[in-house]
Write a structure and sequence with these properties.
The chain is built from 21 helices and 15 strands. By secondary structure, the chain is of the alpha/beta class. The strands form four sheets. It has a five-stranded parallel beta sheet with strand order 6-3-2-12-13. A hairpin with a 2-residue loop joins strand 8 and strand 9. Helix 18 crosses helix 19. The longest helix is centred in the last third of the chain and has 32 residues.
Length: about 525
């Protein structure tokens, strides 16, 4: 096994805001609190320890134990639950949607990043305890984002009609999906485990939240992972004061809008706040709360509340109030003794909109850490890369640029016209010295002729490269085929493939290799040769 790390910036798949964050750009400093390094964690521990209440810890642990009551709990996870009662215990959290059978590969990378960081901090800060947490996005309602996963180039899809929070969705109908998936797996030992994991998860649990908890618990309980479901009455009651603040004062809208005004001067804004960043959650619906004409109206329903009525409803029915993407992070930080949120580039981009909002409501803003990203390369693929003289960094080049680069390197003739263009430009510089002493119309004609001839050379250079690609069609085919395997749909494979493809081939060795080699605080992209 061989591990290579390259800067995230050199993959071409991460945004300017993430580049600047990783490079600690002064432009971004106003938008976050502590940076993800040991010094930053030292500061974050002090801030969180001072602000997080002991009674909140006991409510949290009581709620978590209730959520786990029908699940086998590992000794390490049980120990972590008890540790959460102690004032020197903190969480490292990641969150993810309830994608069918974990969805894309980076689900694993997120959780392993979280586990590994908790373990690393335990070594650096021996007087504190660190618990890895997976926040299940049970209240999301975008079913089309989670109802499938890709396996061996095919889309395995769960079709159903439903509304409301996805965590509450019945698992009815997933036996048909299981049958389709099973037919692709074969009967190896690893295939049997994948079948067991899917069937035990989805066919023996009544809703999507429980099924997802089972699968994540099966994969990571040995590492002490704690899985939390925010769709919980006890936990929502802890958040009630912030829900009322949102309803009465529209605080998040005012503060985040102001932050966005500054952020968008340099960066693309990820999400925009609503006037009220809460949904009202019913049995089969999750709809926006809109304040209009002195009443709180639930969008697409006939439900309305006066101010007095909706504030009473918060106390009476806290489960009905579901935070959207803007204030869900606050909910997380209110109920968890959390130091750090680990997420992808898109997630961290919207978290960076929230620092001032957290300051306004007096909750410590967590450290933001870009999760580990991984490119898997098989032994066979590594040999092909070597034979084609493609470096690890070159894998991520745009396909046209990669092909051009390798065709030019392999060409027996000179395909680069830059020297010829420079020579032409020099000739025209001499001609312009003469032209400037004559009529301006002659100078304009010289300039026009220069542009025309340089354009002609550039077009000839492109035609020559195209002809050379045709001549080297075998090389072009081999590179194209290999890169398409490594980067399906010209995207990072972690966004396309499901973990089951690699588990089928390597079994637990695959997860063990990730666990051994992912180093979250090194802030680099990992290339792992299996």
């Amino acid at each position: 096994m061989k591990v290579t790390q390259i800067p995230f910036q050199k993959t071409g798949f991460f945004s300017k805001i993430m580049h600047d964050y990783l490079e600690k750009s002064k432009l971004l400093k106003p938008f976050y609190n502590n940076f993800p390094d040991i010094s930053g964690f030292k500061n974050q521990i002090a801030e969180k320890q001072k602000s997080f209440k002991l009674e909140t810890r006991f409510t949290l642990v009581d709620a978590l134990k209730h959520q786990y009551k029908n699940f086998e709990i590992s000794e390490k996870t049980a120990k972590n639950l008890e540790l959460l009662k102690q004032e020197n215990t903190f969480t490292i959290t990641t969150g993810h949607q309830l994608n069918l059978f974990t969805g894309p590969l980076y689900f694993l990378y997120k959780i392993i990043s979280t586990i590994n960081l908790a373990e690393e901090l335990s070594k650096k800060f021996s007087k504190q305890n660190f618990v890895p947490v997976y926040w299940m996005a049970t209240e999301d309602h975008d079913f089309e984002e989670i109802n499938y996963f890709n396996f061996d180039g095919k889309k395995v899809t769960w079709n159903r009609n439903d509304g409301g929070a996805v965590g509450r969705f019945s698992t009815d109908g997933l036996d048909d999906v299981f049958e389709v998936f099973s037919n692709h797996l074969g009967n190896s030992k690893n295939a049997q485990y994948l079948k067991h994991l899917f069937s035990e998860g989805y066919l023996k649990h009544k809703n999507l939240a429980d099924a997802t908890r089972f699968i994540a618990n099966e994969l990571f309980a040995k590492d002490g992972l704690v899985i939390i479901d925010g769709d919980d009455k006890q936990l929502k009651q802890l958040f009630n004061p912030f829900v009322k603040e949102e309803l009465e004062n529209e605080t998040s809208f005012r503060v985040v809008s102001k932050t966005i005004t500054e952020l968008e001067k340099e960066y693309k804004v990820q999400v925009n706040p609503r006037e009220i960043n809460l949904f009202y959650l019913g049995e089969n619906f999750r709809e926006r709360i809109i304040f209009d004409d002195d009443f709180y109206k639930i969008n697409n329903t006939n439900i309305t509340f006066s101010k007095e009525e909706i504030l009473k409803e918060v106390d009476k029915n806290p489960l009905a109030f579901s935070p959207n993407v803007i204030i869900r992070p606050l909910y997380q930080e209110v109920i968890l003794p959390n130091l750090c949120y680990i997420g992808g580039g898109g997630e961290l981009a919207y978290w960076l909109e929230l620092n001032d909002y957290f300051n306004k409501v007096k909750i410590p803003f967590p450290i933001l850490l870009l999760r580990n990203s991984v490119q898997i390369i098989t032994e066979k693929q590594a040999k092909k890369l070597e034979k084609l003289n493609i470096s690890k960094e070159e894998i991520f080049l745009n396909q046209f640029d990669l092909l051009s680069k390798k065709v030019i390197e392999n060409a027996e003739i000179e395909t680069d016209f830059s020297n010829k263009i420079q020579f032409l430009e020099k000739q025209f510089q001499d001609l312009k010295k003469v032209a400037i002493k004559t009529d301006v119309s002659f100078l304009n004609a010289v300039n026009a002729q220069e542009r025309k001839q340089i354009k002609g050379l550039e077009n000839l250079e492109k035609r020559l490269l195209k002809a050379e690609k045709t001549r080297q069609k075998d090389l072009v085919h081999r590179i194209t085929e290999l890169q398409n395997k490594l980067l399906p749909n010209q995207s990072l494979e972690e966004r396309q493939r499901n973990f089951s493809e690699y588990y089928l081939e390597y079994g637990t060795d695959f997860i063990d290799a990730l666990k051994t080699n992912l180093k979250p605080l090194e802030l680099e992209f990992t290339i792992l040769e299996l």
